[in-house]
Amino acid sequence: MQSKSQWLKADADKVLIAGPCSAESAKQMLDTAHGIAARFPKAILRAGSWKPRTRPGNFEGSGVDGLKWLKEAGKEAGLKTATEVATPQHVEAALKAGIDIFWIGARTTGNPFLVQELAESLRGTRMPVLVKNPLHPDLQLWIGGIERFQRLGIENIAAIHRGFHAYENSGYRNVPRWQLVHALKSIHPELPVICDISHIAGSTSHLRAIAQQAYDLDLEGLMIETHADPANALSDSDQQVDPETLFRIVNGLTQRVRSFDETDAIDQVGELRSRIDKLDLQLLDILVKRVELISELGDLKRANNVSVLQLERWKEIIDNCMAIARTNGLNEEFVRNVFLQIHDEAIRLQAKMLQEFAEKGDQNP
Ligand code: PEP
Ligand code: MN
């Protein structure tokens, strides 16, 4: 097992990786690098030079030119540099350009063939590699990506948590699912984790809250997309901040105590928590009763040969719930997600019932 990477912890208690989503021009990189270095002289300057865009036709990066602008800006401002590599050709170009740290993007981590090729192209180098989580919440795939580099002798490895794609609208661009970071840490406690708050947030208004959560969890660092002129950024304009806002976010982080045990509010908390526990029991009791009704309804569907999934009925349920959520000031997306889960489970149970019945019929024709 490797010890916490020294390059990460060497000169600061937390690592800060800041810089634009994409390297766009020599001037943009220089202005951004100076803005960052003036406030955080130990930051690492990031920029992407090949951008994995969801649909074609958007700005796809500046390739080798971008690497040159990144490196020169880093040199001028006295910052180490980091970029994304997604193919062995990118690795070759970025090594040649003298970039200090590589990161593996979320779309690449999801592809073990590509990760293996990248690991092989880095074999024998001492390059630090940061592995982002894959787009979907697959912890094993994330760990697998990390281990492919470890097995080929890459020693300076860290994970980047950038949130996970969710089909439902969560309010964030990518849902954090902090539990997975916790699980990763329990399997690989030696691994530093950097939180890419920008790709979780998707919009600058969420950055502070997410940064604080990463800080509360004592993660080893933050990645924050920073651009000298965010409004005119060629990619991810909505989530980038200027260097002054970066400064305010990082300096606004507050040290919080880990539990109520250390506070005077402990008795009050006990009382509130026991009331919450009672409500949770009621919720569970309601779920048990709901499952009973679902099963009676399943019998009727079977007896009348009616299909399990009734989209009209789902629409009726969700419309009613949304109306009640709206009148009571509940977050509609939250209510939608809860009922999606409840409805999915009802459909799963009824489909299982009908299937079991059909299989019995097959055995006793
Ligand atoms: C990025 O860091 O600019 C990027 C493309 O991130 P991700 O791979 O997390 O989507
Ligand atoms: Mn980006």
Structural description of this entry:
- It is globular and about 75 Å long.
- The protein has 14 helices and 8 strands.
- The N and C termini lie far apart (60 Å).
- Helix 2 runs parallel beside helix 3 and helix 3 packs parallel to helix 4.
- The protein has 2 domains: 15-256, Aldolase class I (TIM Barrel); 262-363, Chorismate mutase (Chorismate Mutase Domain, subunit A, Up-down Bundle).
- The chain has helices at 6-9, 26-39, 63-77, 88-97, 106-109, 112-122, 139-151, 178-187, 197-201, 207-216, 243-251, 266-303, 311-327, 332-363, and strands at residues 15-19, 44-46, 80-84, 101-104, 129-132, 157-161, 193-196, 221-225.
- Helix content is 53%, strand content 10%.
- The relative contact order is 0.10.
- Strands 1-2-3-4-5-6-7-8 form an 8-stranded parallel barrel, surrounded by 5 helices.
- With 365 residues, the protein is α/β, with parallel strands linked by helices.
- Bound molecules: phosphoenolpyruvate and manganese (II) ion (MN).
- Manganese (II) ion (MN) is lined by residues 21, 225, 235-236.
* Cα-based radius of gyration, to the nearest Å: 25 Å
Structure summary, number of beta strands: 8
Task: Give the % helix.
Answer: 40-55%
How does the overall form come out from the CA principal axes? globular
Bound molecules: phosphoenolpyruvate, manganese (II) ion
Q: Write the CATH fold name of the largest domain.
A: TIM Barrel
CATH class of the largest domain: Alpha Beta
User: Which secondary-structure class do the elements indicate?
Assistant: alpha/beta
H/E series: HEHEHEHEHHEHEHEHHEHHHH
- The N- and C-terminal alpha carbons lie at a distance of 60 Å
Low-pLDDT parts are 1-11
Largest sheet properties: 8 strands, parallel, barrel
* Spatial arrangement of strands, main beta sheet: 1-2-3-4-5-6-7-8
In CATH, the homologous superfamily of the largest domain goes by the name: Aldolase class I
CATH architecture of the largest domain: Alpha-Beta Barrel
Mean pLDDT: 93
